[in-house]
Amino acid sequence: MEKTHRMFPVPLFQYEIENYNELNIQLEEYIYGLQKMDKRGLKVSNAGGWHSPYFNIKENDLLKKFLAIVHKYLFKIIKEFGWKYAVEKIQIDGMWSIINPKNSFNIRHNHSNSILSAAYYVRAKKDCGKISFFDPKEQRIVRTPLVEKSTEFSAKLLSIEPKEGHLLIFPSYLHHAVAENLSDEDRIVISFNIDFDK
Questions:
Q1: Which strands sit side by side in the sheet containing 176-178, from one edge to the other?
Q2: Percentage above 70 pLDDT, the chain
Q3: Secondary structure of the chain in the HEC alphabet?
Q4: Spatial CA neighbour of 92 closest among 194, 170, 173
Q5: Which of 27, 105, 140, 180 is most buried, judging by how many CB atoms fall within 10 Å of its CB?
């Protein structure tokens, strides 16, 4: 008998929101409106880009509409993980936007103190900056063999080309970074963290 056990896989869930065009127009208007009110923004992982203040979800119907769409995907993810939590236990623990103009990027980081994190692409033109996820196994930092061919066992990172209307959801412990925006248009992403009410 011969068998390979694929132990402790790390998922990255990717979805395309249906009919996202109108939603993205409204979200873009909302985000640029925030930027006009707070030109400085926050300094977190952004290098040269603008990080919004955290959204006030409870007082905004557009954000509630967006989250209603997101929730149906979260329900699928909870089932896939085999977690015990019901949908009503889901808590959005912070939501914000980042506008990366040309030549800006985001340094490697993760989102501690939450279970899942997400990125939704409001505007993402060609060459606006891939998002890369890094292997979370710590031993790789200490010692690893030379790689002749990248496989699911030897890959050290996964890079995703962002597309408008795409939603990525991943474990919050995953380190990730965003490459430099080489396009002439802003890259606009909404990010948020997900936790569960115990």
A1: 46-47, 105-109, 176-178, 131-134, 157-160
A2: 99
A3: CCCCCCCCCCCCEEEECCCHHHHHHHHHHHHHHHHHHCCCCECCCEECCEECCCCCHHHCHHHHHHHHHHHHHHHHHHHHHCCCCCHHHEEEEEEEEEEECCCCEEEEECCCCCCEEEEEEEECCCCCCCEEEECCCCHHHHCCCCCCCCCCCCCCEEEECCCCCEEEEEECCCCEEECCCCCCCCEEEEEEEEEECC
A4: 194
A5: 27
Asked whether the beta carbons of 117 and 111 are under 8 A apart, the reply is: yes
Residues 38-62: pLDDT tens digits? 999 999 999 999 999 999 998 899 9
Give the type of residue at 11: P
How many residues make up the chain in this entry?
198
